[in-house]
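2024-03-11 09:14:02 DEBUG pipeline.ingest accepted 1 chain
2024-03-11 09:14:02 DEBUG pipeline.ingest length=121
2024-03-11 09:14:03 DEBUG pipeline.predict start
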Amino acid sequence: MNRKTTALIITAFFLFIGSSFAQDSKKEQGAKALTDTMKTQLSLNDDQYKQVYDINLDFISKVASVKQDGDSKMAKFKKLKSIDGDRDAALKKVLTDDQFKDFQAYKQENRKEMKARFRKQ
């Protein structure tokens, strides 16, 4: 899977999590989809997969909660940035240095593509 395809999958996932998660099963499906993608991208072993799944499920749950808050856009942005930082810290403990660097590169590429799409709207 090339970087562009991977970035599109990640972008699609973040658009998916952008919608409201009313049920736990949707959160679990989202965490599984994201973790499956990361398994392919980062060559996660079985132990890493389980830990990354738990991290992603927590991340998705927190993001969904923030999106439902009645806070201002800036307050939501700050909360989401904090949640993302917490997720990175947790992933850094689970992934090897090379895997974490690859994850950060994919994430950065995804953000650039999302910004480009936002500007086109």
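2024-03-11 09:14:41 DEBUG pipeline.report The helical segments are 3-18, 24-42, 46-68, 73-94, 97-120.
2024-03-11 09:14:41 DEBUG pipeline.predict end
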